[in-house]
Write a structure and sequence with these properties.
about 775 residues; alpha/beta; seven-stranded mixed sheet; seven-stranded mixed beta barrel; 25 helices; 34 strands; about 30% helix; about 20% strand; binds iron/sulfur cluster
């Protein structure tokens, strides 16, 4: 287990204090701390590091549990609402937690802020920020694309900025960068518990925090000062030995873990990295690994506090936080002898660069086998576009290593063979790589620098080089490669890999190239092999912050937030109806989905992102990407009332208008992928009452419950086959809905009927959400009782 790297400093940890304190009741609690306390972030001088309180809570937990703790347990349990009484059993109990911070990106923040507004509260109770990164479409170049986005999204940006000012949130304007890079640069610290409305919030685990992607309703709970509920996760240990070197990069660690665990393997678990191999990975590299843990369904991923984190904190102007963390080191690393539910061993010395895909991030090809496997499987061998950056891989080190490969190619008279797009992770990264000449090299290589934003990673890509339906290959350093994710073309074969490998492949433009072995021919006809990539981990001249892109919440009078009732992009929310106390009988099946059904299939991104603040308008994309088991087609279902075929949203609207309640049926890991709660809000808005599947992805299951839908799983997975398009389903004895007890379901098809059991994971409080019509309704009931 980890050694005590800061043994001297650790002795200064305050003496054990038996009185536990709930760590973060409100922003006010920070202000009451000692005057010499260390600010939690440079931008928030009045919020201080909570280590002392967390330490006191942890001591209470140690007394109770009396066994060595993993790092994940230490961070989670020290943030418990009630460390004295909270029932703690991994994989079983529901923890009530007090996160330190909430963060939201612009696509999800719109609905989260709509929900916060409808709570009637006047100010957020914990430090919170909004980041404008998802709505910027890549078309020509960073500057022009940003300008166009500011004009096209003005109404939404104005709403987010004014609601940030009104309710006390920090606001990062368009062009500031991608949420996860900014969180790492400014807000993350070892021991942090953060939630955020984006599935890659775990990125900040690279700086030793437990950071979890959630739906907007969870964010609203925490911003409203309520505790946050999380099923106590299992802990999967990944033991790293050896050293990262040469062409192998941190990305290969997570690509390997994805191969081992598959897209479902992390469900319900935190992935905790440990072992001496961690020391060979930079802080931003550890963030890359944690970021993509979302692709295996993990609750989050985390690394233990180490020297690489100290270096990064110092480089980003937070040396005082590093010093304070050293004093509490014992709290920020796992205990000797702690128990993991499962352990995976990876020897970094033997790790070969991997390229994963297409269509799923767990299909790993070692670079030495990529060409052969691609030929065998009929993947298009020629690469059409190469893309580096995104929140996963856009650090100074990443882009510097890519530039070293690009420079090597330039020195031999070569450049990229194909379009090569570069997304800097933040304005700070962009300005620093510009100052240090890295940007110049990437541009000389043939690269186009896109805006500091998500762009093609979230389908914000006005791609012109292939027609929709045309089979083609792209390689990216992104994290996600589900069908149609980047360009809405289901025939695009997207492979995810390290930015270094993307850059090398761009020089040849073919999947068969292996830069570790293959020679290239330079402009004079001479053979050469690319040098191994090399770059500084951090800028030796410090970071250049670039343009100021942050607006702190104003201290004085705050302006009002208004939403135009005629707006096509924003719509104030109406509360969902309460459950009427009756069983759901003879429910119609809107769609029985076949195969993979991610949140992108339920609520597509790309052009639909612009409607994220308008529930009724965005509901026109509901299930349009899901395959109907009846006809193997997308967005075509039979209207059981009229017998006509129609689009899924149209048929759902017809059912709603005719007061016909409906269910949707799905297969395994339903709702995997992004955290977007629109995938739960839309079915609820259009009259759905239950989603019945073989299994759920964690965030989506919670999102469904939060919006008052019944999230149910077949006790027997093969019962999926018993449901036909014309079946009528009744969910019985709902008044007796009890944690751990299955729900009885009667299926009537034609003249026959059969009863099956459906499982659920509702706890007592979540059952109240269902009864109240949504978690937000329930919160309002609770708050009005407290007044
Ligand atoms: Fe943006 Fe892509 Fe990162 Fe999501 S995964 S935050 S869309 S860059």
């Amino acid at each position: 287990m980890s050694t005590m790297i800061f043994a001297q400093a650790a002795k200064t940890v305050p003496k054990l204090c038996r009185k536990a304190v709930s760590p973060l009741m409100s922003q006010q609690s920070y202000k009451s701390s000692k005057s010499d306390a260390v600010p939690m972030a440079n931008l928030e001088p009045d919020t201080v590091l909570p280590y002392k309180k967390l330490y006191e809570n942890l001591e209470c937990i140690r007394d109770r549990l009396d066994h060595p703790l993993t790092l994940s347990e230490k961070i989670l349990y020290s943030h418990l609402e009630d460390p004295y009484e909270q029932e703690i059993e991994r994989g079983k109990s529901y923890l009530l937690l007090r996160p330190d911070r909430v963060s939201m990106q612009d696509a999800t923040a719109q609905m989260a802020m709509m929900q916060f507004i409808s709570s009637g509260l006047s100010k957020v109770a914990v430090p919170s920020t909004i980041h404008c990164d998802h709505l910027i479409e890549a078309q020509t170049s960073g500057e022009l694309d940003l300008q166009r986005a500011i004009e096209n999204n003005k109404e939404v940006y104005d709403f987010l900025q004014s609601s940030s000012a009104m309710y006390g949130l920090g606001f990062w304007k368009p062009g500031s960068g991608i949420i996860h890079q900014i969180l790492l640069e400014n807000y993350a610290f070892p021991g942090l518990l953060m939630i955020g409305t984006d599935s890659h919030i775990p990125n900040a685990g690279g700086l030793g925090g437990v950071c979890v992607g959630v739906g907007g309703a969870d964010a609203v709970d925490v911003m409203a000062g309520m505790p946050w509920e999380l099923k106590c996760p299992n802990i999967i240990g990944v033991h790293l030995t050896g050293k990262i070197s040469g062409w192998t990069s941190p990305k290969d660690v997570i690509l390997k873990v994805a191969e081992i665990l598959t897209v479902k393997g992390g469900t319900g678990a935190i992935i905790e990295y440990h072992g001496e191999g961690c020391e060979s990975i930079s802080c931003t590299g550890m963030a890359t690994i944690c970021n993509m843990g979302a692709e295996i369904g993990a609750t989050t991923s985390v690394f233990p506090f180490n020297e690489r984190m100290v270096k990064y904190l110092c480089a980003t102007g937070r040396g005082a936080i590093a010093e304070e963390a050293k004093k509490y080191e014992e709290m920020l690393i796992p205990d000797e002898g702690c128990k993991y539910d499962k352990v995976i061993n990876i020897d970094l010395d033997k790790l070969e660069p991997l390229v994963n895909g297409p269509y799923t991030p767990d299909l790993a090809h070692p670079i030495s086998k990529l060409g052969e496997n691609s030929e065998k499987n009929g993947y298009p061998m020629n690469i059409k576009v190469a893309l580096i950056g995104s929140c996963t891989n856009s650090s100074y080190e990443d882009l510097g290593r890519c530039a070293s490969i690009a420079q090597d190619a330039i020195d031999h008279g070569l450049t990229t063979q194909i379009p090569f797009n570069v997304t800097p992770g933040s304005e700070q990264i962009r300005a620093t790589i510009e100052r240090d000449g890295i940007l110049d090299v990437l541009q000389k290589f043939g690269g186009t620098v896109l805006a500091n934003a998500c762009g093609p990673c979230i389908g914000q890509w006005d791609r012109k080089d292939v027609k929709k339906g045309e089979k083609n290959t792209i390689v990216t350093s992104y994290n996600r490669n589900f069908t149609g994710r980047n360009d809405a073309n289901p025939a695009t074969h997207c492979f995810v890999t390290s930015p270094e490998m993307v850059t090398a492949l761009a020089i040849v433009g073919c999947l068969s190239f292996n830069p570790l072995k293959d020679e290239l021919t330079d402009s004079k006809g001479k053979k050469f092999k690319l040098k191994e990539p090399k770059a500084d981990e951090l800028p030796s001249n410090g970071f250049d912050p670039g343009e100021d892109t942050y607006t702190a919440p104003p201290k004085g009078k705050r302006s009002k937030v208004t939403v135009n009732p005629k707006s096509k992009r924003l719509q104030l929310l109406q509360p969902f109806e309460k459950w009427d106390g009756k069983d759901f009988t003879d429910l119609t099946v809107l769609i029985k989905v076949k195969g993979k059904c991610t949140t992108d299939h339920i609520s597509a991104a790309g052009p639909w992102l612009k409607y994220r603040g308008h529930l009724d308008n965005i509901s026109n994309n509901m299930f349009i990407g899901a395959v109907n088991a009846e006809n193997n087609e997308m967005n075509k279902v039979k209207n059981q009332r009229s017998n006509d075929w129609g689009t899924v949203p149209d048929v759902a609207r017809d059912y709603k208008a005719n007061k016909i309640k409906w269910v949707a049926v799905g297969e395994e890991n339903y709702g995997e992928g992004s955290s977007r709660e629109h995938a739960a809000l839309e079915p609820r808005h259009l009259g759905g009452v239950a989603i019945i599947v073989k299994s759920f992805a964690r965030i989506h299951e919670t999102n469904l419950k939060k919006q008052g839908l019944l999230a149910l799983t077949f006790s027997n997975a093969s019962d999926y086959d018993k449901i036909q398009p014309n079946s009528k389903l009744s969910l019985l004895n709902l008044a007796k809905l009890t944690p751990g007890e299955p729900v009885e379901c009667e299926i009537k098809t034609g003249g026959s009927s059969e009863k099956i059991k459906l499982n659920h994971s509702f706890n007592a409080e979540q059952i109240e959400w269902f009864k109240a019509g949504s978690a937000l309704n329930r919160m309002k009931e609770t708050l009005s009782k407290l007044k």
